Amino acid sequence: MNNKWIFPMLIVALACAGCTKTATGPLPTLTIPAPELGTPTMITATPQPTAPLQPPTLAVASPTAGPFSPFQAESMVDLLKLRVGPGFLFDALMLLNLGDQLTVQGKAPGAEWLKVEAADGSQGWVFAQLLKIDRDLRNVPIIQPQDVGVLNGKITDMTGLPISGIQFAITQGEARNAAVTDENGEFFAFFPIDVDEAWLVSFDGVVCTSNTWVDTSCTSYKNGYTGAVDPASLSVTLPSEEQLTFMWR
Questions:
Q1: Beta carbons of 167 and 92 less than 8 angstroms apart
Q2: CATH hierarchy code of domain 2-57+146-248
Q3: 17-29: pLDDT as tens digits
Q4: How many whole angstroms from its chain centre is CA 75?
Q5: CB distance 165 to 184 below 8 Å
Q6: Residue 69 gets which letter from DSSP?
């Protein structure tokens, strides 16, 4: 079965607090805080064999040379959480309103979370998909988060080609985290430093900008791909410095 999601639904879904993800059950209710609605709605499709084309462009613009200068971004939703760490399981410092301005200072590895400063000087992390940004994130410097746990994984096809846009869910009971692979085929899921014990890392879906699709219509995988991940899931005990490896088939 091939999974995909539609990104316009992500923006509305992630803006809410305390909601549930119908595909995987309720979001975390442990002592660690719950994410903003988790991940996009999943739907299924049956791809038809199609000759492979060039993969879609993963960035909105070409990077330009020169030193980085912090720039302004805008909240696209109400109740956007400015968090103490780059992940859905971190506490919220404050709630931001639609249209609030933030200064982008850097990004966490994987570029899903941005280090920002609010108008009142508060600094924290925001999920990048919920910000209106007119810059290429490839030009934003990486800021290594401090006092966090991190789970790193990588997925390639059988030829060694990195596969982008593959989402993995990281769950422990009802607690849920998630991360999507970047253009290097890597994902980075961050956790509060005191989160430990066994977690299940599972293939959870494919983003429409993934290089697995024939084109951006997200209806057909390239010839030779079946839309499966091997293994489909792995159990890992945190903290872990091991890079998990997966194969896209």
A1: no
A2: 2.60.40.10
A3: 333 232 333 333 2
A4: 17
A5: no
A6: -
pLDDT per residue as tens, the chain (249 positions): 445 443 333 333 343 333 323 233 333 323 333 335 443 333 333 333 333 333 333 333 344 446 899 999 999 999 999 999 999 999 999 999 999 999 999 999 999 999 999 999 999 999 999 999 998 999 999 999 999 999 999 999 999 999 999 999 999 999 999 999 999 999 999 999 999 899 999 999 999 999 999 988 899 999 999 999 999 999 999 999 999 999 999
Give Rg (Cα) of the chain: 18
* Gap between the Cα atoms of 153 and 163, Å rounded: 12
How is 82-104 classified by DSSP, letter by letter? EESSSSTTSPEEEEEPTT-EEEE
Q: Are 37 and 15 in contact (CB under 8 A)?
A: yes
Indicate if the alpha-carbon torsion angle 4, 161, 50, 60 is positive or negative. Answer: positive
Side-chain-side CA neighbours of 238 within 13 Å: the count stands at 20
What fold, for 71-139?
Answer: SH3 type barrels. (2.30.30)
Domain with CATH 2.60.40.10 in the chain: 2-57+146-248
**Residue 244 has which token pair?**
């998990």
Integer Cα distance of 179 and 170 in angstroms: 8
Give residue-wise pLDDT tens across range 79-108: 999 999 999 999 999 999 999 999 999 999
**DSSP letters spanning 2-17:** EEEE-THHHHHHHT-S
